[in-house]
Each structure stands twice: as C-alpha cells, then as structure tokens.
Write a structure and sequence with these properties.
The structure holds two protein chains of two kinds. By secondary structure, chain A is of the alpha/beta class. Chain A is built from ten helices and ten strands. In chain A, a hairpin with a 2-residue loop joins strand 9 and strand 10. The N terminus of chain A is likely disordered. A five-stranded parallel beta sheet of chain B has the order 6-7-8-3-9, sandwiched between helices. Chain B has a four-stranded antiparallel beta sheet with strand order 2-1-4-5, covered by helices on one side. Chain B starts with 5 loop residues before the first strand and ends in an 8-residue tail after the last strand. Classes of the chains: A alpha/beta, B alpha/beta.
C-alpha cells in the first residue's frame, strides 16, 4: 500500500445479501478492499463468510447489493450486473479463486504442468516452451518438485494439491485473489509453509486478497484488516491485531477468548 | 523547543468484558503527555497501572474511548484515535516503531528475513534490507549461525532481541518500547541502551516502560507517571 490519498478501492461491496430459502446466507455485507491489502473474514462455520466469497466470485448468485471492481484499465465494473461471458473473462484475467478443496479448483484429469499452463493459454499464450517454462517456474515457487510437472494431481498429497491450486491461480498475475480456508485441512508444518509462501507472494506481487478462515492465528499473520461475521452479518471490522487483541463486540470477544493458546 | 512528535491528550481507555458479565475495567483516565524529538520519556507507574495499555493505544492496537493521540506523520498530524485501519498501518510502516514483549512471526521465516521485513515493507531493496538486518542482529549479539533459523524456537532473551532488531533496523521517528531490556543479559542490555541513545540523537521521540533502574537512568530524559507527575 502506498499513500492512501492517491488511491481508490479495488473492490467496493455494499449491501451484499443472499438467502437460501428461509435461511440467511449473508445480510447487508459491505466493505472496501484497497490495492495491496489482505482482508480476512473470520467467524464460525455457518457465519456466512464463504457465502460472501462465493457471491463475489459469482459461484453463487447474490440476491441483492452491489459489487464494484476497478479493472486494470481503471474502469469501475458492476460485477453482479455483468453478463456471464464478460464476468468469466474478467475472472480469468484479473482474479484468482482458491477453493478450500483443491479438487474444486484443479483439473484432476490433466498434468500439474497443464493445470498451471491452462490459465496462461486461456489468456492467449501459445508458445508451448514458454508456457512450460512458466509452469516450471511456478511449481518451484510453490515448492513442488519440478520433476512432477507431468504427473497427474491425483498422485499429489493434500498440501501439494493446495500449492498447485495456488500456482494455477497466480501464474497469470491476478490483481485480486479470493481464498477460502487456504490452509484448512493441512498438517501444521505444511500450513506454516503455505503461510510463508502466501505472505511472500502477496508482498512480492502486490496483490490484494480476501481470505476466509476460521483460524485466527492464520488471520493474524496474513490479513491487514479483519471482518468478524456472525449469522450472515459483519459484527466487527478493523485492523487485524486490534480486532484480535481488543475486540469490542460481544461475539468477537467470545470468538477470540475461545481459542486455545498453543 | 521543537513541536512534539507525539502528543496524547485526555486519553481514556476501559475494557468491557462481555464474556464475563459485561464488567467494565477502566484502565486509563485522562492521560495527557507529549514527547518531543530527541526525548525519551519513561513511564514510572507500578505494574498494572496501564503503561503497556497506553503504548498499545498509541500504536492503534487498542481502541481508545476518548481523547486524542496526535502523531506527526510525514508532513502532517494524524490522530490515531479513530484513524482508519489503512492510515494506522501507514503510520506503523513509516512513523511508529513498537517493541512489544511478544514476538509474533510466521513460522519458518529466517530471523534475518523477519528483521529485514520491516525495511522491505518500506520498499528497501532485498539485499540492502538483509545487510542492514544482519548488522543490527550482530550489534544485538545474535550469532550468524542463528540468522537462517526461525526465531520461533529461540530463547526468551533471543526472541526479545529479534523484537528489538526488527524495530531498530529502521529509523522510526517515534519509538514505543515496552520493557525492551527485560529478560536480557548485561551485554545485550548495553547494546539496547546504545541503540536507544543513538535513536534519540538522530531525533527520535521515545516513549517507554523500563523497570531496570540502571537502564532507565541511562536512556530517560524524563521520568513521569501516567497522571503526569514527574518522578526521579
């Protein structure tokens, strides 16, 4: 982030709402995301954090609200009003979406290298050698042995799959990345490795990210700002360490005080 | 005399513990003090009086209930009370360095990179940042064989020195020091004292807590209580 005055938010969310029948997915969710900023969304299961992420990515259709994204060209785009093909094009070129379960974000039937190269090809890269070179480079960056480039993801461990999914998303240098529990279900040692990797990538590439997690320690280390959600609504928002060390809302206090200190 | 780099006016802080029956603990009441460039103000209240709380409020880690924390940040004055999160982060990156009593880092990141991270966040090139990080680690007596390791497994005293290093590696105009020499041996204590005095000489405004009487007398230009009374 550079000087606040010269910038405007990359993403503006207002009044985002989603119902699943009588059940509230999320209600009146609003926030801004600034260039280079990592926003964490925390809360228990069912608090609506994944619903928010899915509404942003278009995986789930929102019932109401506005999501404004400023493209690389500088034009504000109404994401919820965009037609499907334009939305897909934008998502492919400027956004990355890292799913909680890597299988949802990978193509399991093609090689690791193809998984990484595919997004480049979708954006028009045609030179095979160069695509393969970039795929190799990204496997190394996410610490996957380059010898595995022609292997199918099926043969990878959970942690490797998650790192492969991250490589697949970041190879096209997206401006905005949405991540759902990126370290969920991984061994602690693999988690640490992934945290280190994500933090480095965010800093080096200057990308913005929205990270949904139920792990407050992960949130503390990765996010600049936090939203605490409960029952589909944001109950507290602020600087990450302030929300975790001096939470104001009763639920935020309960959430923070319920964590076991290792 | 120059204008204060940090000016605290009528600051109040209470904690409302909703999880514990909504009991409210008032900690700071109407705290007013200022620190000018080159000064080192040491707070002399007993434990539990709210010294660390004050430092955390100034850093934006705790929210104040009232009053102002005016910080000279680049060419303007920022009130940390009520400042938006992004501005607080910008002030932390450029203006206020805070040595806390806890070291929080991503596991696996080498010690020299942890320290260099302060400079990297300000846009200092990687090689220069690493060189300066290693220089300050050397001054604080962290041997080279530890630089490539994560500080997570270090002893308390070593972690404390890494904490000091990651702040003093940069020339912050304002320094908040929460017992920077607690749990340090004599040689390390001396190194920290030197760093604080150097910072003062280049014009840093320092506010801190120091229990050790010897260290206090070596770094403080003024010793006072939260209520504002001057102490010896």
């Amino acid at each position: 982030m550079s000087a606040p005055s010269e910038e405007r938010p990359l993403l503006g969310v207002r009044g985002l709402a989603k119902r699943y029948g009588a059940h509230v997915g999320c209600l009146d969710v609003g926030f801004d995301l600034w260039p280079g900023e990592v926003l964490g969304i925390v809360g228990e299961s069912g608090s609506g954090k994944t619903t928010v992420l899915n509404c942003l990515s278009g995986r789930v259709a929102a019932d109401g609200g506005r999501v404004t994204y400023v493209t690389a060209g500088g034009a504000p785009v109404d994401m919820l009003g965009l037609d499907e093909s334009a939305r897909r094009r934008l998502l492919r070129s400027e956004w990355g979406v890292v799913h909680q379960h890597p299988r949802d974000g990978l193509r399991m039937g093609v090689s690791a290298g193809a998984n990484v190269g595919e997004r480049l090809m979708a954006l028009g890269a045609r030179h095979y050698g160069r695509v393969r070179g970039q795929a190799l480079d990204w496997l190394a960056r996410v610490e996957i042995d380059q010898d595995r480039i022609d292997d199918l993801p099926e043969t990878f461990s959970g942690g490797m799959l998650q790192r492969l999914q991250i490589a697949r998303n970041l190879v096209t240098a997206p401006r905005l990345v949405l991540m759902d529990e990126p370290t969920g279900g991984l061994d602690v040692s693999v988690q640490a490795r992934l945290l280190d990797l994500l933090r480095g990538l965010v800093e080096d590439l200057g990308l913005s990210a929205v990270i949904v997690t139920h792990d407050l320690a992960v949130a503390r280390l990765l996010a600049h700002r936090l939203l605490v959600m409960r029952g589909g609504e944001i109950v507290e928002a602020g600087l990450t360490d302030q929300v975790l060390d001096d939470p104001q809302h009763p639920y935020a206090q309960l959430l923070v005080s319920s964590v076991l200190q290792p | 005399m120059s204008d204060p780099a940090l000016e605290i006016r009528g600051l109040g802080k209470a904690f409302t513990l909703h999880v514990q029956g909504g009991v409210t603990l008032p900690v700071l009441k109407d705290v007013t003090l200022s620190v000018r460039p080159g000064e080192c103000v040491v707070l002399a209240d007993p434990s539990g009086a709210g010294k660390s709380t004050l430092l955390r409020v100034v850093y934006g880690n705790y929210l104040a209930q009232g009053g102002r924390v005016l910080v000279r940040h680049r060419d303007r004055v920022v009130d940390m009370v009520g400042a938006p999160a992004r501005l607080v982060l910008e002030v932390r990156r450029r203006t206020i360095g805070y040595v806390s009593q806890f070291l929080r880092v991503i596991p696996r990141v080498p010690t020299d990179q942890v320290v260099a991270g302060t400079l990297r966040a300000r846009g200092v090139p990687a090689t220069e940042a690493l060189d300066r990080a290693r220089a300050v680690l050397t001054r604080l007596g962290i041997p080279e064989r530890l630089w490539a390791l994560s500080p997570v497994t270090f002893s308390g005293g070593e972690q404390q020195r890494v904490n000091v290093a990651r702040v003093f590696v940069a020339d912050y105009p304002i320094l908040l020091l929460d017992e920077p020499t607690a749990s340090l041996d004599a040689a390390s204590r001396l190194a920290v004292v030197d760093l604080i005095r150097e910072a003062r000489r280049r014009g840093a405004a320092v506010l801190g807590t120091v229990h050790d009487a010897q260290v206090r007398s070596e770094v403080a230009t003024r010793v006072q209580t939260l209520a504002g009374t001057e102490a010896a």
